[in-house]
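Supplementary Note 3. Input sequence used for the single-chain structure prediction.
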Amino acid sequence: MKKYAVICVGVFLLFPAMAGAVNQAGLVVDHSDGVRVIKVIEFESETITGLELLQRSGLDLIISESFFGTAICAIDGEGQPADDCFGDPDGRFWNFNILNAGSQWEMSMVGASDTVVQDGDVHGYIYGAWGVTQPFTLKEELFDPIPLYQVTVTDCLQSWNDLSGNEDFDMTANRELVIRWNLGSLVELIQDVHIYVSIDESEEYAYLGHTGNGGATSFEWKAFSSGLSLDFWNGPEFGKTYQFRIFALTTSGDPFFHGPFDTTAPVRLSLAPSIQVTDDLLSSEDIPENEDYDTADDKALAIHIIDEACGHDPSDVKDVHFYISLDGGEHFQFLSRTGGDLSYEWRAGANWTVPIFRGGPEFNQEYIFIAYILTSSGAPFFHGPYTMTNPVSIQEFPAE
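The predicted structure, written as discrete structure tokens, is reproduced below.
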């Protein structure tokens, strides 16, 4: 999976005269080497243009004016000179996107100078060939900063919703919690941040890990995370509650550290249901007591993936594969694929079902299903497994 370094800068730090600004817009620049630069630009007028947004960002900018309008040749040191704006030997240029209400990037149909920027808008640029996909971005990542000297806990790096005092639902393969903090100007004095955890509301805190970087503003706790204590190497566990505390170690050693800074309340980690089985595709209700009653000529089960995993892009689906286990067996066999649909109806003759199961489900057999989503991006190659807790079976309607 490609790693993206992220640089977040509030532009009001670069332009103190704009401190009274009332509107904000986001700018996300993804370089070809994976470095991401995020800026929040403040402005007092009701609107500005997309070009003004770039110009106010403080990034080095090269543009070219022509009969067709303003072309963006280089941003932040990457790109082409003005007299050869589209002369990259690999056909790369600055693709211009706008983030929609669903946090999905959409390619702009007009140039930056012809777009209108309002409060809360986000513009994105990525250097690459035509149509290159810009990595996922959440508006909350830009506009919902953590209050000064506070610590929060979120579901994953793509979420900024504080779960303190609440419950986090994860799949087995995606157990993680992200501890975040805002230490303001103290970051200039810090060489490392140490994180501690209290389990099940214990008064004692155990060492969880460290960032190794004084400028870090978060710590990702999942299996085998960098900087993690061996005692917590396997990640957070279902059924437990966690509260977090951080200490910021200073470079000078005087004082030795700042803190402690704590989350406001514990968070509980629970297993999220990720597969639902219904009578057929038209039904949205779970099968009562895990037993479905059908006639001999209409045996069917519908399997639905519930994909609420944090950070998953719902459009990044290439195919979905379903697997089946019979009568409590531990071995799962390939059942079918869907070509991208998150639901699959298993009945006699269903498309893409493998021959051994093409006759559909049988009476008086118990079934457990798991599924995997194969991504179009390949980063990662797949999501899953999506699982269910209890087996389901089909029983024949009693004869009249």
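The radius of gyration is 26 Å. DSSP finds two helices and 29 strands in the chain.
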